[in-house]
Specification:
Blueprint lengths: L2 H13 L5 H16 L13 H14 L17 H20 L26 H10 L6 H10 L3 H5 L6 E2 L4 E4 L2 E5 L2 E5 L9 E4 L2 H17 L23 H14 L9 H14 L4 H8 L4 H7 L1 H19 L1
Antiparallel strand pairs: 1-2, 2-5, 3-4
Helix pairs in contact: 1-2, 1-4, 2-4, 6-10
């Protein structure tokens, strides 16, 4: 069986049924553009060597989607390290299944060289700039939403998909169970979060409870307007009750950042989640607790992204130990 045939069978049989729509599209685009339409895809599954798999991954990393047939000598845009890592993960998973089904004796893709991700510091808000931003947006329609992003670590899709049914005002808890995303240019609610770990309960302080209560009163006034229809009972919606477009929400946030000249233009909406995780770690919260509250599936993901923050907290811990025990 040709690799391009087996990888399509593997995707439709084992991977696609368990993925969200956006993830399906991302995975399939990688398979279609970088495996099916390549010289590797034309090879027999049982005949490819580790050396050839390594050359394929290296070639994709250097030349990207333009490197279709190796003998064509076409050179294009290099594939990003993140995409190359995902491509290798696809091959490893595909070969693992091929071993289970008796086509191969071992997983050759696992013997290829891991692809390192380039290190870069994610832009974050300083504590001072976070305070200034929230103060500057105190009259903004999304102010309460911004506060919840900064202090609860929610993803954009989780915040915009949050319904009042998931807000426990008695126990001050949010139940993260659904997300709001865009599929085929349509806004949809999915009763399924990014990963199993994303399904979680997040406590919120009394201050946010008061803000939510005030916001609900304003929303009830808006609901008296003719044509208002908040059919999903969303906490945050447009004035007519319709869901907020996630892209518009991000652009609005970015526009606010640009108008505030004390902020760096490198900051964007996801910087808020980076800021939350950094602040939690710097406050001495255990990595496992940050992982659970933030909905990351694995602690090593958190450690890789926020390694610089962990090192800073470790330095503080060592200094504290020395001061207390000297």
């Amino acid at each position: 069986m040709l690799i391009k045939e087996y990888v399509k069978y593997w995707f439709y049989t084992y991977r696609m049924p368990h993925q969200a729509r956006n993830t399906q599209e991302t995975t399939w685009n990688l398979i279609r553009n970088h495996i099916v339409d390549s010289s590797l895809g034309e090879r027999e599954l049982t005949e490819v060597t580790v050396k050839e798999l390594q050359e394929f991954l290296t070639g994709e990393l250097l030349h990207g989607s333009k490197m279709r047939m190796w003998h064509s000598n076409k050179i294009g845009t290099p594939l990003s390290h993140h995409s190359a890592v995902k491509l290798r993960q696809i091959l490893i998973a595909m070969y693992k299944q091929a071993v289970k089904e008796g086509y191969l004796n071992r997983n050759l893709a696992e013997d290829t060289e891991p692809i390192p991700l380039p290190w870069h510091d994610a832009p974050i808000f300083t504590p001072e700039n976070q305070r200034k931003f929230l103060q500057a947006t105190r009259h903004h329609r999304y102010h309460t939403a911004y506060v919840m992003l900064f202090f609860l670590g929610l993803r954009r899709s989780e915040l915009l998909g949050l319904s009042w049914d998931a807000v426990d005002m008695k126990r001050n808890l949010l139940h993260i169970r659904q997300v709001l995303i865009v599929e085929d240019h349509q806004i949809v609610i999915r009763e399924r979060t990014k990963t199993r770990a994303s399904i979680r309960t997040v406590p919120f302080p009394l201050e946010i409870k008061c803000m939510l209560q005030d916001w609900r009163k304003k929303q009830k006034v808006e609901s008296m307007t003719p044509g208002y229809d908040n059919k999903y009972h969303l906490v945050f919606c447009n004035k007519d009750g319709s869901p907020i477009n996630p892209d518009y929400f991000s652009r609005n946030f970015k526009g606010t950042v640009k108008r505030l000249d004390f902020l760096s233009n490198d900051l964007h909406l996801h910087s808020v989640r980076h800021t939350w995780a950094t602040n939690m770690i710097q406050c001495g919260i255990a990595i496992t607790d940050v992982q659970t509250l933030g909905g990351w599936s694995r602690p090593d993901t958190l450690l890789n992204v926020y390694a610089h923050t962990v090192k800073d907290s470790q330095r503080k811990a060592m200094r504290k130990l020395f001061r207390e025990l000297q």
